[in-house]
Amino acid sequence: MSQATNTLTPPVLSKDDLLEHWQGHRSLTRKVIAAFPENEFFNFSIGGMRTFSEITKELLGIAAPGIEEIVTGKTASFQRDFGTHTSKEDFLKLWDKDSEKISSLWTQIPEERFQERIKAFGQYEGTVISSIQYYMDNEIHHRAQGYVYLRALGIEPPHFYDR
Asked: Which residues does the record give as a divalent metal cation binding sites (predicted)?
């Protein structure tokens, strides 16, 4: 609140703008997943890094479960069962399902909770907003690995701004 006028100062980004920004990143990451040839998605790596399917498992294990944890207050787990998901198409379907889940859960987070202190996944202390920012930053970091892989495979990755 502004002391001089006693009115609320609007945030730089609204809650809805932040979700739109994140979903834009998720859309771009989906395009990176889709750009991989099936075999290379599961088997290609450089310099001892994980395959992009393993990286995608991490991303799927953090974003939607993390938002669900924020909404429900129930500690989430990094583990997700991917045993029956053996094709790139399966991962794309999971990605789409989680993107929808994030949008649905997002509506249940009141703006005043964004500064609330939490312990994400029972381990990482911070605020709701710092946790959400980590989920986004982690995705961007790992998507960059996907860009390196695609270029090494001779595949032009999606433009970083094509969200």
From this structure: 142
58-66 average pLDDT score: 94
Helices 128-152 & 52-72 angle (0-180, nearest 10): 170
Within a domain: 135 = yes
The total of other beta-carbon atoms located within 10 Å of residue 137's CB is 11
Range of the domain at 124: 15-76+86-153
Does the residue 107 lie in any domain?
yes
Q: Does residue 142 have a known ligand-binding role?
A: yes
Region 108-122 average pLDDT? 93
- Per the structure, how many domains does the chain have? 1
CB 36 within 8 A of CB 149: yes
Q: How far is CA 140 from the centre of its chain?
A: 8
pTM: 0.89
